[in-house]
């Protein structure tokens, strides 16, 4: 844990990440300061809300904040790929101060229309900032720094949500008068200017596609972005997983004021306490992910994150179903005096720990394996899908509330039920992710090599991966070390077991009894060609690779397949050993650098 803290501090002090970190943090703080202030105003201020019900209006505001991501993400992704990503983020930050002033005017005039417009413009500014933001990290950081960076960004983002909503909640308790305008919006304006300053400190990020022609038709480009993302076999499942995360997060966070006002019969400050519990859990989950992933991109944590969310969600349903609503409105102090309230807080912490475990590997996978020249457009496709899921989440909540006569507990319970379906989809549609979840327990992370230069894993086409060694005794360590789905070629058969049968069933291993024989080697050549033609990855050891090169002209295979329109990437690890006093059955602590071999 001390090492992780040192690494986190070093990253924040490094201007490559530090200036970006504070720019992102301040922007997230301002978004939530203003959005939550507006949400609380329409929830508790009857004169501002008019004839609209609070449940309908808070979900409408949530949808309007997300709508710009649907409209503008395709355009912003193109701009971030065509131009310097840092400059795009700087320009987006300059939009923030005027938006704060529009929101302030809405409070001054008691105009729900101006407040809604301010929320929509906040979403617009974030939509132009987002693609460049997520594409910036893999450009500036090493692959070994990416998991920690994402954990810091996730934790800081939700800490900004916490601080922004605490500030908004404490001030909104003063009946949303001039204090909101002079303090909330005044402070928000200062934060916006500080964010602009931090953005100027970020290092430039040269474009990889300067000749890209921007398609200004948002409809056709949106469709094109999403279609392109669906063709990225490694990245697409991660994008869908991230979108479900935003559905869950948006549903929970949006309902906290309503849960506080209705079922709990508590003050606006309690809504902030609920958000605090959720935010703390997210931070804990993100850093647990960094630790348990062994500083690697570890998709297996997606499964365990969902399991935690489901179990905590089921318990939350039981607690809320049997909750006895107080006759008098609870203050924050009174809220903490009830055991049931403590149970609710604890379960929200557990749910958000699951969300943290679930989210970090998905974001790291998207960043590491998206093609470099189109990374921002991949992020924009992700933002588009995220936005769709979040807008649907608002409609989903409204339908549940109308059907269940405003009982908000059924919104949370419905999310838990769908989480069960999502877990089943991961298990049956992505068996590789389940394998990664098992490897977390089967492989000791201390004995895994450190891997650098993962960019090549995101390139199009099938991959022949050449390991320094791929021995029968340590193939699981090799599979655990490399964060992509692949088939490992083994000499000899594994001992019978349910785990070995599962590896065979899903094609994670190919076992050859006599690789020294010519017929077996020819069979292996055919297996390699078959995997590459299907766009899959297959791994062999270097001695076998050299043998196939000399006797079967393996070097000619990429050219032969290219004539058929098939891309074959030969990726080889170079090993930089660090002597360790380890037994023969352990893998030495080494650094493996991934190199693309040109045919």
UniProtKB/TrEMBL annotation:
Cell membrane recorded as keyword: yes
Membrane topology: Multi-pass membrane protein
A molecular function (GO) term: transmembrane transporter activity
InterPro entries, A to Z: MFS, MFS_trans_sf
Localization: Cell membrane
Any one cellular-component term (Gene Ontology): plasma membrane
Keywords (A to Z) from UniProt: Cell membrane, Membrane, Transmembrane, Transmembrane helix, Transport
TM ranges: 21-44, 56-79, 179-196, 234-254, 266-289, 301-322, 342-364, 384-403, 409-428
Superkingdom, natural source: Bacteria
Keyword Transport assigned: yes
Record-linked SUPFAM superfamilies: MFS general substrate transporter (SSF103473)
Name listed for the protein in its UniProt record: MFS transporter
């Amino acid at each position: 844990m001390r090492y992780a803290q040192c690494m986190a501090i070093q990253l924040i002090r490094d201007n490559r990440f530090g200036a970006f970190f504070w720019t992102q943090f301040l922007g997230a703080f301002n978004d939530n300061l203003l959005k939550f202030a507006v949400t609380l105003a329409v929830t508790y201020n009857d004169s501002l809300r008019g004839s609209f019900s609070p449940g309908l209006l808070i979900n409408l505001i949530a949808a309007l904040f997300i709508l710009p991501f649907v409209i503008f993400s395709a355009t912003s992704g193109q701009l971030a790929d065509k131009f310097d990503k840092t400059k795009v983020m700087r320009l987006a930050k300059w939009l923030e101060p005027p938006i704060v002033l529009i929101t302030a005017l809405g409070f001054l005039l008691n105009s729900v229309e101006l407040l809604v417009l301010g929320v929509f413009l906040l979403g617009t500014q974030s939509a132009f900032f987002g693609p460049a933001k997520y594409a910036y990290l893999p450009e500036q950081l090493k692959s070994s720094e990416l998991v920690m960076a994402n954990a810091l960004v996730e934790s800081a983002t939700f800490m900004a949500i916490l601080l922004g909503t605490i500030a908004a909640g404490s001030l909104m308790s003063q009946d949303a008068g001039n204090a909101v305008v002079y303090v909330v919006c005044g402070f928000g304006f200062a934060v916006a200017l500080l964010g602009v300053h931090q953005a100027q400190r970020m290092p430039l990020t040269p474009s990889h596609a300067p000749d890209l022609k921007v398609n200004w038709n948002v409809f056709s480009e949106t469709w094109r972005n999403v279609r392109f993302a669906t063709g990225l076999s490694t990245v697409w499942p991660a994008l869908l997983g991230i979108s479900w995360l935003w559905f869950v997060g948006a549903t929970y966070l949006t309902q906290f004021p309503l849960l506080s006002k209705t079922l709990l019969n508590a003050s606006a400050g309690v809504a902030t306490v609920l958000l605090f519990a959720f935010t703390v859990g997210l931070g804990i989950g993100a850093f647990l992910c960094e630790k348990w992933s062994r500083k690697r991109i570890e998709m297996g944590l997606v499964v365990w994150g969902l399991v935690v969310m489901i179990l905590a969600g089921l318990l939350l349903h039981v607690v809320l179903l049997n909750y006895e609503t107080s006759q008098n409105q609870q203050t924050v102090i009174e809220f903490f005096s009830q055991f049931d309230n403590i149970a609710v807080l604890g379960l929200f912490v557990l749910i958000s720990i699951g969300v943290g475990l679930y989210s970090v590997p998905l974001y790291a996978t998207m960043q590491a394996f998206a093609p470099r020249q189109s990374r921002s457009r991949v992020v924009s496709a992700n933002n588009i899908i995220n936005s769709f899921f979040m807008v649907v989440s608002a409609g989903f909540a409204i339908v549940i509330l109308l059907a269940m006569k405003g009982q908000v507990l059924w919104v949370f319970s419905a999310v838990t039920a769908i989480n069960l379906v999502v877990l089943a989809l991961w298990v049956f549609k992505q068996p590789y992710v389940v394998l990664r979840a098992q490897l977390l327990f089967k492989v000791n992370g201390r004995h895994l090599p450190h891997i650098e230069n993962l960019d090549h894993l995101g390139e199009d086409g099938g991959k022949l991966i050449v390991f320094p060694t791929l021995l029968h005794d340590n193939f699981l360590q090799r599979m655990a070390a490399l964060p992509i789905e692949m088939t490992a070629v083994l000499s000899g058969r594994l001992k019978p077991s349910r785990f070995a049968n599962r590896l065979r069933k899903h094609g994670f291993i190919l076992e050859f009894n006599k690789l020294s024989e010519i017929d077996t080697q020819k069979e292996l050549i055919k297996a390699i060609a078959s995997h590459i033609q299907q766009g899959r990855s297959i791994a062999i050891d270097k001695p076998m690779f050299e043998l196939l090169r000399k006797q079967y002209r393996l070097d000619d295979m990429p050219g032969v397949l290219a004539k058929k329109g098939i891309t074959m990437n030969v990726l080889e690890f170079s090993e930089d050993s660090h002597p360790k006093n380890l037994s023969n059955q352990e893998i030495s602590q080494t650094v493996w650098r991934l190199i693309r071999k040109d045919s």
